[in-house]
Amino acid sequence: MTTPEISIDNCYVNREISWLQFNARVLQEAEDESVPLIERLRFLGIFSNNLDEFFKVRYATVKRIVEAGKGGKSELGGIKAKELLEIITQIVIKQQSESVKILNNIDKKLKEENIYIIDETQIDEAQSEFIKQYFLKTVSPALVTIILNDSVVLPNLKDTAAYLAVRMLMSGDTKQFALIEIPKSVDRFVELPKQGDKNYIIMVDDVLRYCLGDIFNIFEYKAISAHMIKITRDAELDFESDLSKSFIEKISDSVKHRKIGEAVRFVFDKTIHKETLRYFMSKMGIDDTDSVIPGGRYHNKRDYMGFPSLGRTDLLYDKIEPLPVKDLSMQDSIFNAISKKDYLLHAPYQTFSYIVKFLREAALDPKVKTIKITIYRLAEISHVASSLINAAVNGKAVTVSIELRARFDEQANIDYAQQMKEEGINLIFGVTGLKVHSKMCVIEREEGKKLKRYGFISTGNFNESTAKIYTDYTLFTANKKILKDVNQIFSFFETNYRVYKYKHLLVSPHFTKSSVFRLIDNEIKNVKEGREGLIRLKMNSISSYPMIDKLYEASRAGVKIQMIVRGICCLIPGLKGMSDNIEVISVVDKFLEHSRIYMFGHNDDTKLYISSADWMTRNIENRVEVSCPIYDEDIKKEIIDTFNISWNDNVKARVLNDSQENQYLVNDKPKVRSQFATYDYYLNKLEN
């Protein structure tokens, strides 16, 4: 896949450009012919969905800098904001063009598998009758069609919804324009009756094109055409200062306001009539600071994430059965087990059910008195939330710190927060000026005349849905020193004018940066004293310049640094005299790499932390994040083993360097596909 030229200023890659290169790695998965065919379509959907969110958030932020009349050069890694908007648009145009080529290639491969995606020009007589009936019964009742003229004000187009811009050529060569919203309540992919061994699918967009005559039968037009357009809006939440409103009400109102946020991107079918394009851009007030992107016939390719499987399991990844954690029984008491030793859960290789089991046991156990937990993103149907509600009903004192500003999941969290409030759960809505992104739980259980603490700390959300595809570690522990620190963080939530000190956890925003710097300084000291210095890191993103500068300092001192970074990487490895000792790879594969690990030192001397925090400014300075030390030697070895498996990946690992070309890591070693090898690692642990 071709890669556009990347601008690098001094020793940093611009954050937005680096993110676009991460999304290019996702697009590589759609292009990779070793990936099962329907999974390739789904990666195309992920690429598109990622891009939508990028424009809602990052592009919108840069655009705000431009509109405020600021250059933004210092905040944006040496690139002026207006120049960056142009670079982003050019990169995205190239990536979108590449995605169309990939889709065409996949379409050919699907035909070889007797799967045909047809359009409105390829419908035969039998299919015609089915489609007309489907339109009348399913599509037509859900349709919103707007007839436009000079006196009609174009309504606010919904963020990332897809529309058909309709142009009718009337008698006397006058034009009539209309807009059809493609209904989200209808499946995007319509499965037509099978013909022999052949499967046929038509997009609902083309069902609408086929039925334009039925939709506009009251108009006497000579010609009619329909082309897709899509708009993306700024997703920033703007809060009112109305003191009479609760925090939930303010967030809820702000989420509703997002629907009419300022436009930041306009995508259109490049075959659209120029007159139609001009008309709609004028009506929508699209200006030169918006990203205007010509695209293919179909937008909202994120819908490909839901492409029907058609019963073709041979065109999908094999489903894996999540494994049990060795010696941790789902039938016995988890409290009894973790009172004796710590246990580690590594999802999705091992089952998330242990977390639900822990909370359900706490909800029912008469000895459990309190439960405290942080919530960032809940599943749509959350057994975690129902367990907490169950506990409150059973008389436990339940405290939930729920983050209502978890981007794009605000409404789901609001709904659950209201349910919890009704059941008497004590809700904490974060900390003023800070998002609570830490993932932790502590319960107090009466044992004899004392209260004993049990809990878990995780790198990922307590979300049953994402736990099937996100790789995350969760530590179950009864370590009283660690859980005392966890309990103090909940005290900070209640009295956040006080800064607490923590003896074991690294906690943002007060201590993560300084603590990590001390750990890095210790490795620098080791090198200066003739010993080997080693830092191994795994995270989603690194964009904090102070953290990058500290790693550069360690590299110059001779410390070896190995990094696995899935997404944004503003650090440039391999720069002479700057980062010669830093190597960075990125693994993009079946699962989404989400766990964060920090390791300092060698073997028995390794100080190891699992964390909720990436090394971004927001995580270090503007969020409550927790990094938890691993003291159990068996668990420490397990995490080091799985890190090494990822580090040795030479199938799905890309090398990140100053070329920014996403080249696959190629060597003569035996092939290691780390996600599959990690599953085998845990399977072998059980068998042995």
UniProtKB/TrEMBL annotation:
Annotated binding of ATP, by residue: 50, 470, 566, 594
Catalysed reaction equations from the record: [phosphate](n) + ATP = [phosphate](n+1) + ADP
The UniProt record lists the keyword ATP-binding: yes
GO biological process: polyphosphate biosynthetic process
Start and end residues of each Polyphosphate kinase C-terminal domain: 333-497, 505-675
Regions crossing the membrane: none
Keyword ATP-binding: yes
The record's account of how the chain is modified after translation: An intermediate of this reaction is the autophosphorylated ppk in which a phosphate is covalently linked to a histidine residue through a N-P bond.
Keyword terms, alphabetized: ATP-binding, Kinase, Magnesium, Metal-binding, Nucleotide-binding, Phosphoprotein, Transferase
Domain Polyphosphate kinase N-terminal span(s) in chain numbering: 12-117
Residues annotated as the enzyme's active site: 437 (phosphohistidine intermediate)
GO cellular component: polyphosphate kinase complex
Residues of the Polyphosphate kinase middle domain: 127-307
Known cofactor(s): Mg(2+)
EC number: 2.7.4.1
GO molecular function: ATP binding; metal ion binding; polyphosphate kinase activity
Binding site for Mg(2+): 377, 407
Matching InterPro entries: PP_kinase, PP_kinase_C_1, PP_kinase_middle, PP_kinase_middle_dom_sf, PPK_C_dom2, PPK_N_dom, PPK_N_dom_sf
Function (record text): Catalyzes the reversible transfer of the terminal phosphate of ATP to form a long-chain polyphosphate (polyP).
Family membership noted in the UniProt record: Belongs to the polyphosphate kinase 1 (PPK1) family.
Name used for this protein in its record: Polyphosphate kinase
Organism: Algibacter pectinivorans
Phylogenetic placement of the source organism: Bacteria, Pseudomonadati, Bacteroidota, Flavobacteriia, Flavobacteriales
